[in-house]
Design goal:
- The protein has 2 domains: 98 residues, OB fold (Dihydrolipoamide Acetyltransferase, E2P); 321 residues, 2-Layer Sandwich (BirA Bifunctional Protein, domain 2).
- Helix content is 30%, strand content 26%.
- The protein has 12 helices and 19 strands.
- It has an 8-stranded mixed β-sheet with strand order 6-10-11-16-15-14-13-12, sandwiched between helices. The chain has a 5-stranded mixed β-barrel with strand order 1-2-3-5-4. It has a 3-stranded antiparallel β-sheet with strand order 7-9-8, with no helix packed on it.
- A hairpin with a 2-residue loop joins strand 2 and strand 3.
- Helix 4 crosses helix 12 and helix 8 packs across helix 9.
- The longest helix has 23 residues.
- Bound molecules: aspartyl-adenosine-5'-monophosphate.
- The site of aspartyl-adenosine-5'-monophosphate has 22 residues, from strand 11, strand 15, strand 16 and helix 12.
């Protein structure tokens, strides 16, 4: 029977069989060490010819990433040889028999290094291999906890999970960042956001969320944009103010951070980082206040701009951190005409809306806010934004039948992962990142 590597610490003195990949092989002539890896961790295997000549002969042949089955005795390590970095650092396996289950081709680079110091393109070109590295796996363990926590928290708040379509007849968010597809004899689009669908489903279920892919034809290559994103979306009815949406978003982030803190201590340590600080109340300011703060702080005048640019976001986060200790800041009140048609204009100052963004450590994590729920106002805005009502007729129909005041928000799972672990490039936080230059393969290096 197979014993998982992490379980060997409880089996000192016992005979066990482990199965896994050879992570590193160190040959010292009269003794061969194999670090073997399975889904639970890594352990050191000691192969001595005087214990088993047969095992020693096989160990002489194996190379990195060979898949092996090893039986042997679990021994406690002497005090001074304990390795605190390994889950199994207090034990080692004395090999009695080794079977090769699968061979591996020679590796293009060293996978034994704990840092895996590779250029990002190399890391991505060899994803099938680099995904095996514990450091790379740690990123996706954190991401899985983030997505689970999003689901868990919203379910606890009585949100209903639905599946949004990816093929859509119309553009929800506006702008040119959209992939058009040939859909039989018609034009269709890959969804930029489940926005209109989450509002439709909300109009029936009150509180809804979805975890789905969104697609953005980002025409530039940056360290924080992908063309395919995992979007964590929520929408809630019967709100009295956009601040309720903000508070739900903040509570969701708080829960996500708590779960990552509890379940990913090892992974945070591996990246030598700590969770971003969220205060009981997250600082909240209007776009104009944020721009004034930047002006007061550095003299950089962005007070007439319609949005914050990346430099503004970094500076604002640094100011807020210095002033309050918070790594998070909500910015609300963007120019109405610069945002999509569904965003709710502030009734007291309709030039500005009740949309919001949440920034953390210099980057936007989330967008959301209150939406227009009144059918006539919505129709008016559809006209003003020069949209074709026929293309969003299902959405408009839902609103014609009575929809309460409502709002919602969306996070990108890759942005959260990147910012929690302080990764330099969002591509590290996507298993198979898509951008202008890559769909698994480098596009300019293959024949079209
Ligand atoms: P927005 O377009 O701001 O809002 O997107 C919401 C969040 O999704 C993530 N995100 C991205 N991450 C990586 N690469 C991209 N190209 C990219 N685009 C978006 C970000 C961003 O904060 N419908 C609204 C949300 C709402 O109002 O509920 C929307 O899509 O983390």
């Amino acid at each position: 029977m197979r014993t998982l590597i992490a379980q060997t610490v409880e089996k000192v003195g016992e005979e066990v069989t482990i199965k896994g990949w050879v992570h590193v092989r160190r040959d010292h002539g009269k003794i061969i060490f194999l670090d073997v890896r399975d889904r639970s961790g890594v352990m050191q295997v000691v192969v001595l010819p005087q214990v088993s000549e047969e095992a020693y002969n096989v160990a002489s042949e194996v190379k990195s990433e060979y898949v092996v089955e090893i039986s042997g005795k679990v021994n406690a390590r002497p005090e001074k040889l304990i390795n605190p970095k390994l889950v199994t650092g207090t034990v080692e396996l004395e090999a009695h028999g080794i079977t090769i289950l699968a061979k591996a081709a020679p590796l293009p680079f060293d996978m034994g290094d704990s840092e895996l110091n590779l250029e990002l393109p190399t890391m991505l070109d060899h994803r099938g291999l680099t995904l095996r590295h514990p450091r790379v796996q740690a990123i996706f363990k954190v991401q899985a906890v983030v997505i689970d926590a999003f689901r868990e928290f919203l379910k606890s708040q009585e949100f209903f999970e639905f599946q949004a379509p990816c093929i859509t007849p119309a553009v929800a968010e506006g702008g040119s960042e959209v992939f058009q597809i040939e859909y039989f004899d018609h034009k269709a689009y890959l969804t930029q956001s489940p926005q209109l669908y989450k509002q439709i489903v909300m109009s029936a279920f009150e509180r809804v969320f979805s975890v789905n892919k969104i697609f953005r034809a980002e025409p530039s290559v940056t360290t924080r944009h992908l063309t395919e994103v995992v979007s964590l979306d929520a929408e809630m009815g019967f709100i009295e103010s956009w601040t309720e949406v903000r508070d739900m978003a903040a509570a969701t982030v708080r829960y996500i951070l708590k779960q990552v803190g509890e379940k990913c201590a090892k992974e945070l340590e591996l990246f030598q980082t700590t969770l971003p600080v969220m205060l009981d109340e997250t600082p909240t300011m209007s776009l104009r206040e944020a721009q004034q703060k930047i002006f007061d702080h550095s003299g950089r005048d962005v007070r007439d701009e319609k949005d914050l640019n990346p430099e503004d976001e970094r500076e604002l986060c640094a100011i807020v951190k210095e002033e309050t200790g918070s790594d998070f800041v909500f910015v609300y009140g963007y120019p109405t005409k610069k945002k999509p048609f569904y965003v709710y204009p502030n009734p007291e100052d309709p030039e500005y809306n009740e949309g919001m963004d949440l920034l953390c450590r210099g980057i936007e994590w989330l967008s959301g806010g209150r939406r227009v729920n009144d059918y006539d106002q919505l129709l008016e805005q559809v006209k003003e934004w020069k949209m074709d009502p026929a293309k969003i007729s299902m959405f408009l129909e839902a609103f014609s039948y009575g929809v309460p005041p409502e709002g919602g928000f969306a996070f990108g799972a890759e942005r959260i992962t990147m910012q929690i672990l302080q990764l330099k490039n969002i591509r590290e936080a996507s298993m198979f990142p898509r951008d202008m230059e890559r769909i698994d393969i480098r596009l300019n290096e293959v024949k079209q």
